[in-house]
Amino acid sequence: MQKLFNKILVPVDFSAKSKKAIDKAMDIALEHSCTICLLHIVSIPALGALAAADGHISVPLSLGGNNKELEFKLEKLISYIYLYTGGAIEAETKIIYGNWNDGIIDFTDENNFDLVLIGQDERFLKKRTMVLNPDIIARKTNVPVITVPSNKRITRLFSIVIPITDFLPVRKLMYGIYIASGYDTVVKLLGIENERNHSKMEHYLQKAAKLIRDNSSVKVNIQKISSKNVAQAVEQFTRKEHTDLLILNPDTQTKMPGFFSSLFGNIIQKYSTPPVLTVNPV
Q1: How confident is the model over 12-50, as pLDDT tens digits?
Q2: How many whole angstroms separate alpha carbon 147 and alpha carbon 73?
Q3: Which of 5, 22, 215, 263 could disulfide-link 32, Cβ–Cβ 3.0 to 4.6 Å?
Q4: Bridge partners for 220 per DSSP
Q5: What are the structural domains, with CATH classification, of the chain?
Q6: Chain-wide mean pLDDT for the chain?
Q7: Range of weakest confidence among 157-166, 190-199, 255-264
Q8: Which residues, in sequence order, are CB contacts of 132 under 8 Å at separation 6+?
């Protein structure tokens, strides 16, 4: 199978959440022979007009003044990576200017990363340095984004859940097979049906199972649940069933129900118990 993970981007704000994200990135890098880039973004509103005028969200480092302290902190993290991995993986750092989501999107596109890894954000609003939206990043870069709770592993997974609705999620299945291959992993295809999509869901559920069985030796388990909201159904399912990883499409599969959910960006990645791999469908 084609190697899907080669270059991992990890945004860092030097918080404990960032450190945990680096730990998870190292596990994946060792597992899949990847390189890691640690990205720190400095928000400087006064330079926003300059960036926009030049056609870029990010501002060159030379315009931001002295960043010796930031560089020192990043180098300490690089030393930590080399110590943890025994020098087995390559790691680098970068400082740019702009806002977090747009900076990550531009930097990912410019440098051909194939995975972005972020620590799980807080469910409730409070002041924090780095505010990231995995849906926006995955959708605009077409690169998968893993959101990882600090207490969860991200390698040697035993149960991967992929919801199926009214279309065949080929990219989700591709990543599910890739991550599951080589281990005693069960891919659970969770059919989420309602009164409008029953016939389509059943068709694509069976087709997804056949695709996995025809192209891999990965174990497949089929289950169904009735719900009008995919994120809510998945969240309820993972409470009852052991799950090591969710693979979801952004927006319709990640947004929790309710008016305030859309207003405040209440997405499942903020508080899901298992890690979430957000994959753009196209």
Answers
A1: 999 888 999 999 999 999 999 999 999 999 986 645 545
A2: 23
A3: 5
A4: 187
A5: 7-148 (3.40.50.620), 159-278 (3.40.50.620)
A6: 88
A7: 255-264
A8: 11, 100, 101, 104, 118, 121
User: What is this structure's pTM?
Assistant: 0.89
Which pLDDT score is estimated for 46? 47
Two structure tokens written together for 34: 């990847």
Distance CA 277, CA 147 (A): 6
* Full 3-state SS string of the chain: CCCCCCEEEEECCCCHHHHHHHHHHHHHHHHHCCEEEEEEEECCHHHHHHHHHCCCCCECHHHCCCCHHHHHHHHHHHHHHHHHHCCCCCEEEEEEECCHHHHHHHHHHHHCCCEEEEECCCCCCCCCCCCCCHHHHHHHHCCCEEEECCCCCCCCCCEEEEEECCCCCHHHHHHHHHHHCCCCCEEEEEEEECCCCHHHHHHHHHHHHHHHHHHCCCEEEEEEEECCCHHHHHHHHHHHCCCCEEEECCCCCCECCCHHHHHCCCEHHHCCCCCEEECCCC
Least confident of 60-74, 163-177, 194-208: 60-74
